[in-house]
């Protein structure tokens, strides 16, 4: 199990949570492909528009 920190807007985090997916990296799939089923993601959202 690994822990990950992703930086994303609060709106993107809320949309992903509501629809059951994670998003980060402006649509680049590489980093998210490294995730494993037991990994945890913590999001940092510096601003909300």
Furnish the topology, listing elements before pairings:
Layout: E1 3-7, H1 10-19, H2 30-33, E2 40-44
Parallel strand pairs: 1-2
Overview of this protein structure:
The structure is a single chain. With 49 residues, the protein is of the alpha+beta class. The protein has one domain (3-44). Helix content is 29%, strand content 20%. The protein contains two helices and two strands. It has helices spanning 10-19, 30-33; strands spanning 3-7, 40-44. The chain has a two-stranded parallel sheet. It is globular and about 30 Å long. 4% of the residues are buried. The model has no long low-confidence stretch (mean pLDDT 85).
Task: Describe, in short, the structure shown.
With 49 residues, the protein is α+β, with helices and mostly antiparallel strands.
Number of helices: 2
Rg on CA atoms, Å: 11 Å
Number of domains: 1
The biggest sheet amounts to:
2 strands, parallel
Mean pLDDT: 85
Strand order within the widest beta sheet: 1-2
**Unreliable segments (pLDDT under 50, ≥5 consecutive)?**
none
- Give the N-terminus to C-terminus distance in angstroms: 33 Å
Assembly type of the shown chains? single chain
How helical, in percent, are the residues? 25-40%
List how many beta strands DSSP finds.
Answer: 2
Principal-axes geometry comes out as globular
H/E element sequence:
EHHE
Fraction in beta strands: 15-25%
Structural class: alpha+beta
